[in-house]
Amino acid sequence: MRQSIIQIVIIVFTSSWWLFASYALSAKQEPKLNNSVILQYHHVADDTPAITSTRPDVFAEHMAYLAEHYHVLPLKTIINALRTGTLLPDRTIAITFDDGYANIFEHAHPIMRQYNFPYTIFVNPPAIGRAGNQLTWKQIAIMGSQGADFANHTLDHVHLLDRLDDETESEWLTRVVNNIERAEKQLTNQIGYSLKYLAYPFGEFNTALKDALVERGYVSFAQYSGGVASFSDFGAIPRFPAGGRYANLKTLRTKMASLAFPVTNNTITDPVITGNMPEMMVLTLDNSDFYMSMVSCFWQGERMETTRNGNVLTVPLPEQFPIGRSRINCTAPSKEHRGRYYWYSQPFFKARADGSFPD
Ligand SMILES: [Zn+2]
């Protein structure tokens, strides 16, 4: 009798301990979110053009900060999760480099090794091992065996929106899609796999190209502000530039913590500026986690006069767009995640009079 009481006490004790432990575990378990952020670097060096460079010591500072506060996951893990509607641990981030510079191997790779951080490099395959400042295939093989993935940045880093003389719309689309498909093939021949990820050179695209690539199974990456979520446009995924004037960790920190803005409709359907632009951009928003009154939109550093009606935000477009790349950014503080912002960016691309685009 006495023994069975002891047995019961032991059972109750152990099962309540187990309950307590599982409760503590679940309480400690991190929240999962339909959100991630992608950073975009170019050079990691102190002797390259400042506008696209992150100094090695600053880059080391970024990675130390990420190691402390973020989950750095492979880009493909994040994209696969979000495309299938799988939630990710909060504060998940991917690191990408464009252009395949040798200084990534020299200055960034050792730091990535130190933290065991995965990353993705977008390259122009014909330039690899040829141009003096480029990675070699041998370096790519080493990096590939140590956590790096490689993806498509076109054959030759052209401005994809440039038109050749007398080129029709369909001739243009055929030419640029061929460029991308050939680059994918050359890359696959060297590395043995094909992610079908494209980073648009200069972040430039239009809707026809974006749709053609989606149709061919590509996921494409641009360069403008915003988090990524399952509702993102996988034909033009935002990435935050983290080099040049954007390398300052004080401002970059806010971007790392940003949330994908739930825009359910945008009346601007093509980022290319044409002769007959609408006067307004009208955004329909899912404002369940922010106040409409707290949404702010910015154009060239100036806050814009917007109007709102329920969850619809009307943003008057500028009368003049500059030649080249520009964007309207909208942000709103999250109610649930204090100190963090929803972030949306609408890019615009305007050609020169001759139809070409500046670097
Ligand atoms: Zn590039």
Topology:
Layout: H1 2-28, E1 32-33, E2 37-41, E3 43-44, E4 53-54, H2 56-69, E5 71-72, H3 75-83, E6 88-89, E7 92-98, H4 102-115, E8 119-123, H5 137-144, E9 148-152, H6 169-191, E10 197-199, H7 207-215, E11 219-221, E12 240-241, H8 249-256, E13 259-260, E14 263-266, E15 280-285, E16 296-299, E17 302-303, E18 307-309, E19 312-316, E20 324-333, E21 341-350
Parallel strand pairs: 2-7, 2-12, 3-4, 5-7, 7-8, 8-9, 10-11, 13-21
Antiparallel strand pairs: 1-6, 14-15, 15-19, 16-17, 16-20, 18-19, 20-21
The chain binds zinc ion.
Zinc ion is lined by residues 98-99, 153, 157, 201.
Structural class: alpha/beta
Please provide the count of β strands.
21
- Which fold name corresponds to the CATH topology of the largest domain? TIM Barrel
Bound molecules: zinc ion
What level of helicity do the residues show? 25-40%
Main beta-sheet strand count, sense and barrel state: 6 strands, parallel
Radius of gyration: 23 Å
CATH superfamily of the largest domain: Glycoside hydrolase/deacetylase
* N- and C-termini, Cα separation: 87 Å
Under the CATH scheme, the architecture of the largest domain is: Alpha-Beta Barrel
How many individual helices? 8
- State mean pLDDT (0 to 100 scale): 93
